[in-house]
Design a protein that fits this description.
single chain; about 400 residues; mainly alpha; Growth Hormone, Chain: A; 17 helices
Length: about 400
């Protein structure tokens, strides 16, 4: 009975994390659908709007270590609640940003707010409360929340844009942030858990920052950020440039989300039996091959959807081996903070992917140069991943009593 109760508590926490990630990441993943109508309404230019989106990616990354530290000190439930309220407020103002500085400011604040629903905070918090051998699988299940949100929101958002206009769709996305508020209750600390319990002993962070392996992991995740956010920000523009109907954009993002779910959970299972660094390398190599095939193929609806399937299987799938390597090498004591640092570099890549995509388009009238850069970096990341050591000194803390053997 006691074991069943622990398992139920663990899966309740995991389900809440999936729901929060679905709302926050799903909302961010569909912003590409608003770039063209926002440009038509404001005349700001694709490069300017892309820069504002890139700033949002950067602030999302920069704020993640701080969000992890605040969650360690004040509890994740309070931090998630505050972030959701801020996300709703800024999201409702974005459609009325009439000039570039205001748009950059609002998207920058929105990026900070979205850190409360980031994989680093959610995976780090939950992983610290489950059995070590299950952390990779848990990361995969939670990571599937992002593409689940994309799967649901992409066609819905496209439908609202077509039926009621982009402003109504943007306000609807902002209001969705409020749905995460009741889910935050699952992250309340259990009675007797001191507020600073998770924050004791900063040595894992120092060990990581001084470790070559940690920076190799960061290098691969930087490439992941550039790839993913170039894709989700500019894929609608790529589709429009190919002369395909706007509805294809919504379908493509939905397909990306659907197959991201399979990829994320599948990678969680794979790393339970096989090498994490080898899994990471294969995923980046698969991305490079997918981009090369897409560039060579005729641009039809079928080609775009097939490309979305392939990319969907690979891009959220890198989270389980990345989180697994960080947890394996440095322990779970400060995993939320360490993953926040990893996501900081990820978001530097995301900044470049979002911004450079717009710059390249305005300079050349297409995205081919950006695709070639993306392909090259994916191939380099595949090689780097193979050099990451999978063994190291790991400080292990006792698992939380309520969830020590849960999710097993």
């Amino acid at each position: 009975m006691e074991r069943a109760q622990r398992n139920a508590q663990a899966w309740l926490l995991i389900a809440a994390a999936v729901g929060i990630l679905a709302i926050t990441m799903g909302s961010r993943s569909v912003f590409g659908l608003f770039i063209s109508p926002l440009n038509s309404a404001t005349g700001l230019g694709i490069a300017t709007i892309s820069f504002a989106v890139a700033v949002s990616q950067l602030t999302w990354g920069v704020a993640q270590p701080l969000t992890g530290m605040l969650a360690d000190r004040f509890g994740p439930a309070r931090v998630i609640t505050a972030g959701c309220l801020l996300a709703a407020a800024t999201g409702m103002l974005i459609p009325f940003a009439g000039n570039a500085p205001v748009l950059v400011l609002l998207l920058g604040v929105a990026g900070v707010a979205a850190t409360v629903g980031s994989p680093s905070l959610l995976v780090g918090t939950v992983s610290a409360r489950v059995a070590p051998e299950r952390r990779g699988l848990v990361a995969g299940v939670i990571g599937a929340g992002g593409p689940l949100g994309q799967l649901m929101l992409a066609p819905a958002t496209q439908g609202v844009i077509l039926a009621a206009g982009w402003v109504a769709a943007a306000l609807s996305i902002a209001a969705l942030s409020l749905l995460a508020l009741p889910l935050a209750l699952a992250f309340r600390r259990k009675p007797g858990a001191p507020a600073g319990a998770a924050a004791r002993g900063g040595s894992p962070v120092r060990d990581a920052l001084g470790s070559r392996a940690f920076w190799l992991i960061n290098a691969t995740f930087f490439v992941c950020g550039l790839h993913v956010f170039f894709l989700v920000t500019h894929l609608p523009g790529v589709i429009e440039a190919c002369g395909l109907p706007p509805a294809v954009s919504g379908m493509a993002l939905a397909v990306l989300g659907l197959f991201n779910i399979a990829g994320s959970i599948g990678a969680g299972f794979v790393i339970q039996r096989y090498s994490m660094k080898a899994t990471l390398s294969v995923l980046f190599a698969a991305r490079a091959l997918g981009i090369a095939a897409f560039l060579a193929a005729p641009k039809t609806e079928l080609t775009v959807l097939a490309f979305s399937v392939w990319m969907g299987l690979t891009y959220m799938a890198v989270l389980p081996p990345t989180a697994g390597l960080v947890g394996k090498l440095y322990g779970a004591e400060r995993l939320a903070t360490l993953l926040g640092l990893v996501f900081l570099l990820h978001q530097v890549g995301a900044f470049l992917g979002s911004w450079l995509g717009g710059v390249v388009f305005e300079a050349t009238g297409g995205y081919d140069a950006m695709w070639l850069l993306d392909l090259t970096l994916a191939a380099i990341a595949a090689g780097i991943a193979l050099t990451i050591p999978e063994r190291g000194a790991v400080t292990k803390l006792p698992a939380a009593p309520a969830l020590a053997s849960a999710a097993s």
